[in-house]
Amino acid sequence: MSQPPGGVQVGERAVVLGGSIAGLFAGQVLAEAYREVVVVDRDRLFGVTGTRRATPQAFHAHALLARGQRAIEELFPGITEESRAAGVPTGDVGADLRWVINGQRLPKIRTGLVCLAIPRTALEQHVRKRVRALPNVTFLEGRDVEELVTTRDRGRVTGVRILHQRDGSSEVLPADLVVDATGRGSRLPVWLAELGYQPPAEEQIKIRLSYTTRHYRLPPGALGTDLAYIVAQTPSHPRGAVFARERALPNGGDRYVLSLNAHLGDHAPTEPDGFLAYARTVPVPEIHHALRTAEPLDEIRAYQFPTSLWRHYERLTRFPDGLLVLGDALASPNPVYAQGNTITAVEALVLRDHLRRGAEPRPAEFFADVAPTVRAAWDINVLGDLAYPQVVGERTPRIRLACAYLARVHRAVADDPVVAESFLRVAGLIDGPQALLRPRMLARVLGRRHPAPRPTVAPAAVSS
Questions:
Q1: Mind telling me which Pfam families this protein's record contains (predicted)?
Q2: DSSP letters for 158-204
Q3: What is the pLDDT of residue 346?
Q4: Per-residue pLDDT, 49
Q5: 65 pLDDT tier (thresholds 50, 70, 90)
Q6: Residue 450: pLDDT band with limits 50, 70, 90
Q7: Beta-carbon count within 10 A of 398 CB
Q8: Which residues, other chains included, contact 269 with Cβ-Cβ below 8 Å and sequence gap of 6+?
Q9: What is the DSSP code string of 281-328?
Q10: In this structure, which CATH number among 3.40.190.10, 3.30.230.10, 3.30.9.90, 3.30.70.270 belongs to the domain 92-116+205-305?
Q11: Spatial CB neighbours of 124, under 8 Å, sequence gap ≥ 6
Q12: pLDDT tens by residue, 363-420
């Protein structure tokens, strides 16, 4: 095979474990630097419609944060316009979305930040088509990864042993670099322990998040020109929702998705009457009103996400060469903040930067360079989740102060467009959380009296 398209060859073969979003992003950047890239997955990836077994969360509402849209556009130039041409709703994060926090609507503001309201399945299809078209990328479907293969001293990973589901045979797939993109169920900590390495420390926040979702047909313009309602969960309003327009349907009307979400074991029923009644408790009456005349397109499905997880590979002092970790296998934060695909896309850009130096990425340097992106998102998770008294976690004086300040920010955004825009930039991972602590922001948030929110769901309605 000829020189890789990127022009700077780092190695002969890279193997990516996992063919979902993280694996596809990795495959895209690795194809610039390796003569051959092989993506291995246990599922069928092509010729499949709907939600795959490995990604049940894909059934539920998804969108890309502003930073994620920019990162994916860097990885796949033109994909935003390609998606728009295919009917994916696209708009301004502040002007075309209806944000609701503590039951109050944020002012409409034009931010210049792009919201690509693309369903997870559609995003995978667009990206997989792009990656599959690369001449040096091969996909192996229906294969389980049994173990890592290493040098005798176990200091370097040299490939993986894979099992063919069709006939039970196994083979070793040699590699100069292996990238684990197998998601939060990654077996890498176990494999490392078997090789004599210390597994990474795990940071967890037990949130017991639930999503319950159904898709509907509604008349065109049901939300006017807006793309979605984004109803944030807060302690005073613990039930949230995403009600979003996904695409025009060929036989008339628009397809909408409604995902109802809550922490701490509260959840919407999966039978229609209960689902509708639960939707009525969300502090946006228009959602319940729209559902009364909407045509259901599928059955109601639930998805449970018990714990946010960050595996701290950046803290390890020993780690084998020839091995990296990307995506949910490294960190899978609370999906209610929609950060997962964005974090993964930025990690892929970091990997690309390392590869363009012309040498194999060093694991310690890579993990150190992606950690700040994960940290920025994780801090948002921590402050949002620990604001709930029932969520278990260490509340240092600094965290208590930050949670109290975030509550003030949530109150200020309803009537201060300047604070609202800064908040949306931080939520979209364009700016770090420190942007809300600049003197100008402190003065606006703390210098005005903002009424405390009135709860719409009594505490007794939230089961433990």
A1: FAD_oxidored
A2: EEEEEEETTT--EEEEE-SEEEE---TT--HHHHHHHTTPPPPEEEE
A3: 96
A4: 67
A5: confident
A6: low
A7: 8
A8: 212, 275, 277, 278, 300
A9: TSS-HHHHHHHTT-EE-S--EEEEEEEEEEEEGGG-S---BTEEE-GG
A10: 3.30.9.90
A11: 20, 21, 24, 55, 58
A12: 999 999 999 999 999 998 888 899 998 998 888 999 999 999 999 999 999 999 999 9
Domain 11-74+123-203+308-382, CATH homologous superfamily name and number = FAD/NAD(P)-binding domain (3.50.50.60)
Beta-bridge partners for 255: 217, 247
For residues 175 and 15, the answer to whether their CB atoms sit within 8 Å is: yes
331 DSSP β-pair partners? 310
Handedness of CA 368, 32, 14, 48 (dihedral sign): positive
In angstroms, rounded to a whole number, what is the distance separating the alpha carbons of residues 212 and 251? Answer: 26
Contact 92, 103 (CB under 8 A): no
Pairing of strands 11-17, 177-180: parallel
Q: 340 forms bridges with which residues in the sheet?
A: none
Please name the residue that has the structure tokens 């020839």: 322
DSSP-assigned letters across all residues of 93-106: TTTSEEEEETTEEP
Query: Residue 137 pairs with which residues in a beta bridge?
Result: 37
Contact call for residues 183 and 42 (beta carbons, < 8 A)? no
Q: Sorting pLDDT into bands at 50, 70 and 90, what band is 441?
A: very high
